[in-house]
Write a structure and sequence with these properties.
Length: 375
Amino acid sequence: MKFSLGGLATTLLLPVVAFAQSKITDDAAPDAAALDVQIAALAKTRAQKKTQYFLQVREEIGQTLSSPGAAGNYVLDCMRKVRFEGHQGGNVEFSEWKKKNIGLYSDHDFEQAANLHLRYLALTLKRATLDSAEPVMQETWDYLGLLNKAQDVIVGHLRDQGQVKIQVYDEKNHEVTGQMIAEIDDLKLANAANTRAYIEELLNGSVSGGLAAQALKLDKLLQGVSEWEMVPGNFSGIMEQDIRSVLRKKKDPRLVATWDDEIAYLGALTKLKKDEQEETEFEKETYPRLRWKQAKDVELIGMPNRALTMRIGLANQFPQHPDFDQWTTEISSDLKKRKAAALAVKSPGKETTAADAGTPTPVAAPSPSAVPQPN
């Protein structure tokens, strides 16, 4: 068989010529209005999928929390997925890690911290599907109640460093039947400092970046939740972001009592730490500062006279406070505004008092005993 070189060259050249001569024509410009509708529909679908996934995860967490002693194991399994799963030799590494940290699987405080972490993660998932924190406010109150009962776990040093609380687990019936205190050395458990590090991570780290959130691919999905505290062990932050942000918008009178609750919690926590310096700092700095903030909310809900009484009382009682200069400046500014308001309502031929005009009347300085004392 004979080949013509000229014919072959022509054959090879044809695709090149065809490619050089081809033209690509763009589609017609899309209708802007129709495109907006399509994009909105896609965004809605995306939001629905996200909400459905959050509800699915909440149900999974709820099932875990319904089983006594299951929260700690759930978190540790999440840790296995995040730190060991998919790595070469990951199963062997996890087995070695588990042997060294076997105490975590029976430590009472770790279980409690894991329980709190998962509860707040579930609450955060619910909040993320809503426009505001108001619908979950009661659940948030309930959670703060649990946090208040877990003060010994939060403080973390009430027990002897050589002892640990462990759960008694019935292997046959698969349930926790009680707890006991045992010597770490006798049981060859993880040392208390190592266990404490994991507890700190659960309570003082963000739920959006915790082991559970990472294992469930929630870390990025939970970013940007507004007016919501992300740290499950931050009592003050939860009270401020999750509760007060809602109450302030409505000028709800319950706002005032939230400060009493926070002060009581922080005061009790400080005493549990048994640190004389911290107790002094709380009584002389933290406590009056919180009362000052409370006075601002007292004014917000419509009681400016009582608020002023509280402020003057604090300034009289704590003249050595770091904020004293700021306090006296604010009090002076308040009094000036009251005087200006009283003068502004005067009319020809009649002296109109501030009380007649509905303007708060300046009050006399209260005695130091008028200010509630730290317990």
